[in-house]
Inverse folding.
């Protein structure tokens, strides 16, 4: 998906790099800490955040439809690096929902439309995943057979999803975003209340 978006969406390389590098470092730290602290303690908080995201996105109909902010280069770099550190740490420590958090952060904080925000999110998510993966592999915390099957499925799904998003635009991405967040709410509600 990152390659699909990079070919079709105009990317600010400096903003992408500072966000990606900060997220890579923070994800590495988060993945190291997760071996010390039980990440399950975060599930109730993540559930609340996801519910708030769903409500906010649903009622703000024009969210992500158009670019809404023209920030100075300095502000973009500060916001980008801050988002990279915060969400990168979360991805390394816990993980689920990172893509949704990245997309919404780029829409709300940087004023991007949904498709452009998705492009940045996919590329940055590659960096956070690679960083955390390096830690988990070094610790032997992986199942190779399952990882390969999931990676292949993920690549196929990402290519299809990216092409659909690029063809159908921001309104389509907003709907899919809401569906994914809603499914995650159901999953976390089950984990919190029934497990």
């Amino acid at each position: 998906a990152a390659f699909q978006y990079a070919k079709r969406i105009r990317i600010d390389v400096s903003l992408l790099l500072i966000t990606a590098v900060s997220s890579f470092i923070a994800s590495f730290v988060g993945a190291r800490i997760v071996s010390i602290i039980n990440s399950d303690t975060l599930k109730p908080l993540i559930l609340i955040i996801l519910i708030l995201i769903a409500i906010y996105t649903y009622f703000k109909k024009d969210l992500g439809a158009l670019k809404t902010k023209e920030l100075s280069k300095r502000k973009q770099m500060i916001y980008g690096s801050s988002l990279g550190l915060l969400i990168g740490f979360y991805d390394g420590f816990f993980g689920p929902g990172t893509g949704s958090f990245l997309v919404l952060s780029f829409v709300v904080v940087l004023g991007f439309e949904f498709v452009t925000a998705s492009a940045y999110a996919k590329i940055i998510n590659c960096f956070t995943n690679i960083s955390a993966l390096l830690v988990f592999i070094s610790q032997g915390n992986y199942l190779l057979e399952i990882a390969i099957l999931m990676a292949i499925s993920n690549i196929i799904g990402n290519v299809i999803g990216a092409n659909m998003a690029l063809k159908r635009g921001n309104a389509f991405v907003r709907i899919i975003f809401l569906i994914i967040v809603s499914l995650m709410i159901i999953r976390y509600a089950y984990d919190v209340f029934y497990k």
Residues 52 and 168 are 26 Å apart (CA to CA). Residues 2-194 form one domain. The chain has one domain: 2-194.
